Amino acid sequence: MSMPEQHEWLPYVIVWACACALVVLFRIRRGLLHQDNAVPRIEIGNGQTIGAREEQDDYFSTFVSPHGTIAVLADGISGLSGGRAASTAAVTTFVKQFLKLEHIRELPEFFTTAAAASNAEIMHTLKGAQGGTTLVAVVVEDGNLHWGAVGDSLIKIFRNGDFIDVNQKHILESVLEERFVSGEITRDEALDSPMKNHLVNYLGYEGFKNIEIGTEPVRLQKRDKVILCSDGVYNTLTEVELEDILSKPISAYDAAQEIIEAIERKQLTHQDNATVVILEKGW
């Protein structure tokens, strides 16, 4: 082909190349939109108050990764000098361990590994000082809720106006109830024990037991709200009060803020630190 003929065809070649590029970009965009619609979106909200305490012993963190959305909340034991350091070390270590995941198949082992690493990190940080913390952690991936818990902080699912309890409180009351059911003690002995609210399992001591882990992931439904909260929340607000807030057509962040505002309005003399994290499943 001679040089003049090449110049005559050049505009057609450019137009053809541009058209092909547009087709490719359109297909990529359509694929991304399809992918976004297929993966449930997670909206995150949180709130916290120091209450009547001199120090904030609660600590929390959320993080979004290719393996899912993680939320971790820890309530440092206020009666111990290292409560704040323990909760901070536990949450930080949990998130670091989560970021090490190479595949979602590793999730079942993640909670056990992260709990052991957190316990070791707390003991290293405190260097012999008294300290400990509760901890609840959830990972939401592809609409499935995976969870682990130590102590008396709680994980709940708010679904269609009702609460679904996810974990149990690791306090002496639970042990006493089991002893009553087995006939070892009377109902009055179980109910009247002054030690019933004492923790029987927490992070930050050599006798740490295994973290409680969900045996199977919970399949979330559209508009489910996953609630993580310290005892400063559920000891102050009733489920009815929480339900009134969570039923409102507001964002997860606004709901968390309203929960904290409701706690502060009560102005309880001995109000504990209170922290709430909300993960809401959308589409």
From TrEMBL:
Keyword Nucleotidyltransferase: no
One MF annotation (Gene Ontology) recorded for this entry: protein serine/threonine phosphatase activity
PROSITE patterns: PPM_2 (PS51746)
Gene3D superfamilies, per the entry: PPM-type phosphatase domain
A Pfam entry, by short name: PP2C_2
Listed transmembrane segments: 12-28
Record bears the keyword Transmembrane helix: yes
Domain of life: Bacteria
UniProt keyword annotations, A-Z: Hydrolase, Membrane, Transmembrane, Transmembrane helix
The protein's enzyme class: hydrolase
Segments forming domain PPM-type phosphatase: 43-281
EC number: 3.1.3.16
Protein name: PP2C family serine/threonine-protein phosphatase
Organism of derivation: Paenibacillus oleatilyticus
